[in-house]
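Worked example 3 (structure in, sequence out).
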């Protein structure tokens, strides 16, 4: 039997945060040695303005309270902001931005602070605008399944709200107890169900955002069909807080399936993983809602760091697949047929399946709690890439060969249905030169295999320097022109995505 599941929630996050502060990272400005932009420094008149607007309780300036806004989830980056603002309305955000723009003060928008590329915390002393109090659900239309909310609503809370109405959010990620819908839209988050429901570009029907100069852009459509000119919402989706602050979002939500099965399969090699994946897709078709791959290194890590017992163990590869549907016997019949076929074809060595809600959660928790273990590592390098499936696992083998005994472990796992691979490299100690060498190697290999160096996490601060290596010159210029037009002073999330020469 599995130990009790610990899902991510605010209480656990807080406990982990406390632990993490004990060995917090160096300041980003020292570790990365980049120059501060030519922005103003905060002075008393600025604080006076913010205090008048928000009141004392929505202005954080106490050093110990500031820490959790300055350090990211995996303790990889650390800013030194001296003020966090907690607006509740679009109007307040508009006033803050208009003021900051006029005063040439840089800002960093922060949602749930679960981003893993250093986009959500300041690099220097940028003012943090936390969206955590923009947490109102505005409307839900039970005919169309369209939900409109403020951007600071926690994804899990939205899903709980929808569950009562037999609907669900169209995305699911391990951080759902903490991340916010605005953060999800700003990062174009992927997650486990992208395979079935698509990404945020497909699910966001409309949004409201505030530009750098405080102007409010209302693209908050709740229509599924509306071909009237340029769809500006797409500019904000995935722009990681560099083009505006998203304040409201409307998304389409699918109906909640009644029945769920989750299976964990053990396999011999990657070739069999790929063959099984193809079979799974064709056999389960419309009821397949997620498929994840994990290698033996992942499972060893989870067992070791998270103290997890596995229902099946000691296989080189694992596939975790989920079906969701409205007819229990139909779904189970399909699954049984699939299992017969994969065993008979010698593709799968062993497997277990669960349909009881508690067991389903237990199996999912093997995948979901990986981040707890990663957080405990002294030095770790993380990559989130996507690759054509024929090359998918070769890169892990390449990295192992490249690093030899310079690292403790290299393992891979990810949303195989989207070609998305997460690579974890555990080191003895944090070593700047080794980090740079590995980064260049991963970039070179990923491009050689015609993949992307950021599948779903974005570029943030840590991957922004990739941009001129991966985009065609004219594409990059167009991106820079758009940024320049929407945020001429570059006050929105500087040093992220597009790095300006300051
Ligand atoms: C355990 C764990 C599992 C994860 N799993 C996945 C996964 O499966 N798939 C995936 O895609 N990601 C995953 N992530 C990464 C992360 O959860 C997502 O990127 C998420 O969408 C970030 O949301 P957030 O509210 O925490 O945003 P933050 O981390 O606070 O911010 C992320 C970026 O968005 C910007 N931003 C935030 N809110 C706004 C806003 N309202 N307006 C403008 N800009 C804004 C920030 O400036 C920053 O650049 C995972 C992270 C963890 C820790």
């Amino acid at each position: 039997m599995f130990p009790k599941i610990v899902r991510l929630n605010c209480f656990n996050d807080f406990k982990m945060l406390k632990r993490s502060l004990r060995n917090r990272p160096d300041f980003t400005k020292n570790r990365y040695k980049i120059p501060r932009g030519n922005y103003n420094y905060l002075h008393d008149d600025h604080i006076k303005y913010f205090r008048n607007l928000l009141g004392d309780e929505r202005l954080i300036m106490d050093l110990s309270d500031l820490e959790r806004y300055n350090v990211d989830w995996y303790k990889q980056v650390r800013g030194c902001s001296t003020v966090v603002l907690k607006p509740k309305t679009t109007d307040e955000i508009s006033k803050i931005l208009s003021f900051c723009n006029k005063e040439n003060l840089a800002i960093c928008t922060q949602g749930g602070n679960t981003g893993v590329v250093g986009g959500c915390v300041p690099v220097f002393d940028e003012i943090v605008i936390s969206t955590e109090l923009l947490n109102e659900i505005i409307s839900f239309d039970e005919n169309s399944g369209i939900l409109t909310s403020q951007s600071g609503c926690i994804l899990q809370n939205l899903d709980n709200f929808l569950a009562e109405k037999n609907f669900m959010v169209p995305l699911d990620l391990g951080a759902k107890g903490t991340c916010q819908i605005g953060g999800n839209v700003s990062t174009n988050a992927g997650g486990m169900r992208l395979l079935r429901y698509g990404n945020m570009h497909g699910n966001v029907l409309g949004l409201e955002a505030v530009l750098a100069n405080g102007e409010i852009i209302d693209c908050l459509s709740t229509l599924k069909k509306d071909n009237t000119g340029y769809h500006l919402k797409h500019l904000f989706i995935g722009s990681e807080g560099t083009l505006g602050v998203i304040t409201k979002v409307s998304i389409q939500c699918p109906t909640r399936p009644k029945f769920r099965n989750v299976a964990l399969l053990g396999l011999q090699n990657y070739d069999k993983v790929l063959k099984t994946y193809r079979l799974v897709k064709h056999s389960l078709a419309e009821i397949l809602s997620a498929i994840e791959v994990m290698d033996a290194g992942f499972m060893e890590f989870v067992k070791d760091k998270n103290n997890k017992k596995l229902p099946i163990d000691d296989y080189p590869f694992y596939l975790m697949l989920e079906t969701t549907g409205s007819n229990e016997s139909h779904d189970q019949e399909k699954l049984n047929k699939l299992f017969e076929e994969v065993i008979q074809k010698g593709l799968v060595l062993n497997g277990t399946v669960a349909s009881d809600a508690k067991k389903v959660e237990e199996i999912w928790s093997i995948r979901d709690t990986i981040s707890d273990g990663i957080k405990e590592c002294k030095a770790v390098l993380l990559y989130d890439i996507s690759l054509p499936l024929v090359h998918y696992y070769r890169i892990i083998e390449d990295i192992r060969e490249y690093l030899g005994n310079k690292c403790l472990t290299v393992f891979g796992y990810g949303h195989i249905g989207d070609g998305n691979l997460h690579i974890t490299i555990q080191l003895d100690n944090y070593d700047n030169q080794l980090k740079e060498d590995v980064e260049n190697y991963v970039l070179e290999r990923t491009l050689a295999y015609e993949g992307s160096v950021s599948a779903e996490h974005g570029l943030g601060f840590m991957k922004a320097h990739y941009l001129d290596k991966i985009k065609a010159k004219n594409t990059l210029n167009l991106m820079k022109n758009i940024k320049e037009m929407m945020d001429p002073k570059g006050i929105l999330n500087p040093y992220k995505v597009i790095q300006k020469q300051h």
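Notes: Residues 73, 108-116, 119-120, 131, 151, 173-175, 179-180, 182-184, 186-187, 189-191, 240-241, 245-246, 371, 456-457, 460, 493, 496 surround flavin-adenine dinucleotide (CB under 6 Å). The first strand starts at residue 59 and ends at 60.
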